[in-house]
Design goal:
The complex is a heterodimer.
Chain A (H helix, E strand, L loop, with lengths): L1 H27 L16 H8 L1 H34 L6 H9 L6 H19 L7 H26 L3 H8 L4 H30 L2 H6 L7 H9 L5 H30 L1
Chain B lengths: L6 H29 L14 E4 L2 E4 L4 H8 L1 H34 L2 H16 L2 H12 L4 H8 L13 H24 L5 H8 L4 H12 L1 H16 L3 H6 L7 H10 L4 H33 L1
Antiparallel strand pairs in B: 1-2
Classes of the chains: A mainly alpha, B mainly alpha.
Chain lengths: 265, 297
């Protein structure tokens, strides 16, 4: 009895702590008042204003573009790292390559942002590339910190699955390219998808590195939101939070349902 | 498969490492170079490391930036504040997160999957907006003040924003999922029969926890603590949004040195010292932990 009480108690407190701030924000996004915390009445006013706010819409589009490109490149390179670390048994200086690929994981983002910005400025100075700071420099930076995260996911999947399947395919005379597409790829596909998704959200969520490496015409959504809420509150941002939460909740529920139907099969 | 790899394919495999060397290690080397350069007005705002004059090659390097940082208690205090913030919030995340992860992992599979989805939702939603949510909640006219006034604990709104307690709260809130998810990952694999076995053999619940459950979830504790500690050390957003002037943190100092004071050499020296002071202990810890694991296996 005592145990059950403690279980229900800690789960209730824990989940309330996680959800109370988010739910409050969603509730106040319907508040028809410029002063965020003083309730005046229910309205969709801030949603309308949000969808008329060119700056936010454009930033949202920029963020989606950078995030999907960054996730795609980071996933391709993450897979290559995952393979080279788990499948080449005679890779020389293996610890060195592990060090190379995992260092970005432990680097505070503020240092990463600063060093990349100074690098872009110097390289512009010396070889004229990149010609200016903008979407390209943000993209390069996002790829750089996402690669390591994707590589970890791919590596753990590759090292936990049975290599004999590949060898069996080889013994049966399958050509190496076919082995990859018919045997290895389907097995690591879930890891590739979750790696891509992680890289996508890392890029979408990043404020610090993007603030350093951005330039004219490359304001991402977090940069615009941060400039709005740094010094005060913004009812439009409340509406934006509610929409993002809705998207995340729908995505989570559909993943849950897909998983459940897969298990039933 | 790889045995049959052609030579050009091997090069193909190594391109990501080239990318990381170019965009991760070269920039780090560059900030090291700038950190030992002399500040100067102009663009770029530092003097070239090498210059040629009638006396031949001259090297304009200096340790002055580092001496300046380490002789000024302002910077030292900001390093210590960041370390203590990271330590406090890691411990708090562990204390709050462990029971949640444990009970979610121990639930019936049908409930467990729903609870797991509920843990992942805040993890996937925007970091910045979750910090902003606390800014809304802690306002003088915010909901927490209203509740406290309503139940009569306080008579006037108290200022809960812009101090280091608000920063700790914000950090614990946003980083809690980073602690819970790896803990859950290890606890869910854990065989519940071990607890029954320990109980049947007469161990008290506390003993079972300390001697059986805790050692088996240690890798999860380490992974979760790393995921919280490392980013919090360089955290900029949370102190900027919720913090005040009572405590300054390392991430914000670098930001201000660079964007406000435009002092590249000092900002670079701060970043380099940050790496040495904060990142090296973590790497050493990881190596030691890897050795410990290796011995136990």
């Amino acid at each position: 009895m005592n145990k059950l009480f403690f279980k229900i108690f800690s789960l209730t407190i824990g989940f309330s702590f996680l959800y109370f701030p988010i739910l409050t924000l969603i509730a106040y996004s319907f508040n028809d008042n410029k002063r965020v915390m003083v309730w005046k009445g229910f309205s969709f006013r801030w949603y309308k204003e949000l969808f008329q706010n060119e700056q936010i819409l454009e930033a949202f589009y920029t963020s989606l573009k950078i995030a999907s490109l960054s996730a795609t490149f980071a996933t391709i390179m993450g897979v290559m790292i995952g393979f080279s670390l788990t499948r080449i048994s005679k890779i020389p200086a293996r610890p060195f390559f592990i060090f190379l690929s995992s260092s970005p994981l432990v680097m505070p983002e503020i240092i990463l942002g600063l060093s990349l910005l100074l690098f872009f400025i110097s390289s512009n100075h010396i070889i004229g590339f990149p010609s200016s700071k903008g979407q390209l420099t943000v993209l390069i930076s996002h790829i750089t910190f996402s690669v390591a995260f994707v590589a970890v996911i791919i590596q753990s999947r590759l090292s936990s699955y049975d290599k004999n399947i590949e060898e069996a395919a080889q013994d049966l005379g399958t050509i190496p390219n076919m082995i990859f597409w018919k045997v290895t790829a389907p097995v690591i596909l879930p890891a590739i998808l979750s790696g891509w998704l992680l890289a996508f959200t890392l890029s979408l969520d990043d404020l610090v590195v993007a603030s350093f490496t951005t330039g004219p015409g490359a304001n991402t959504l977090p940069i615009v939101v941060f400039s709005k809420v740094r010094l005060g509150l913004s009812p439009e941002v409340n509406a934006l939070s509610a929409i993002i939460m809705l998207i995340v909740i729908l995505a989570a529920i559909s993943i849950y349902l897909i998983n459940r139907s897969n298990i039933k099969k | 498969m790889i045995k049959n790899l052609k030579k050009q394919n091997v090069w193909f495999v190594f391109t990501p490492y080239l990318w990381l060397v170019l965009f991760f290690f070269v920039p780090l080397a560059l900030i090291f170079k700038i950190s030992i350069s002399v500040s100067e007005w102009g663009m770029p705002p530092y003097r070239d490391l090498f210059s040629f004059s009638e006396n031949g090659l001259k090297i304009n390097s200096t340790l002055g930036n580092y001496l300046f940082i380490f002789s000024d208690p302002f910077y030292i205090r900001s390093y210590l504040n960041s370390l203590s913030l990271a330590f406090t919030s890691t411990v708090l995340c562990l204390l709050i997160g462990y029971p949640i992860a444990f009970y979610v992992a121990k639930s019936k599979p049908s409930i467990r999957n729903i609870l797991l989805i509920m843990l992942i939702i805040p993890f996937w939603s925007s970091f910045l907006l979750r910090v902003y949510a606390w800014k809304v909640l802690l306002q003088g006219s915010g909901i927490i003040n209203s509740i406290l006034i309503h139940i009569g604990l306080i008579s006037e709104p108290i200022s809960m924003l812009h101090n280091h307690y608000a920063v700790i709260l914000g950090v614990v809130y946003t980083y809690l999922p980073f602690m819970i998810l790896p803990l859950y990952g290890y606890l869910v694999k854990f065989d519940l029969n071990l607890i029954d076995a320990s109980n049947d053999l007469g161990a008290k619940p506390l003993n079972t926890f300390v001697k059986v459950i805790l050692p088996l979830s240690l890798p999860g504790i380490v992974a979760g603590s790393m995921l919280v500690f490392i980013p919090v050390v360089g955290e900029y957003i949370i102190p900027e949004m919720l913090g005040g002037s009572d405590k300054l943190y390392f991430g914000k100092i670098i930001w201000d040195e660079f964007f406000v004071n435009r002092d590249w050499p000092i900002a670079s020296a701060l970043a380099m010292s940050g790496i040495v002071i904060l990142v090296f202990p973590i790497i050493i810890f990881q190596l030691m932990y890897a050795k410990y694991n290796f011995k136990n296996e």
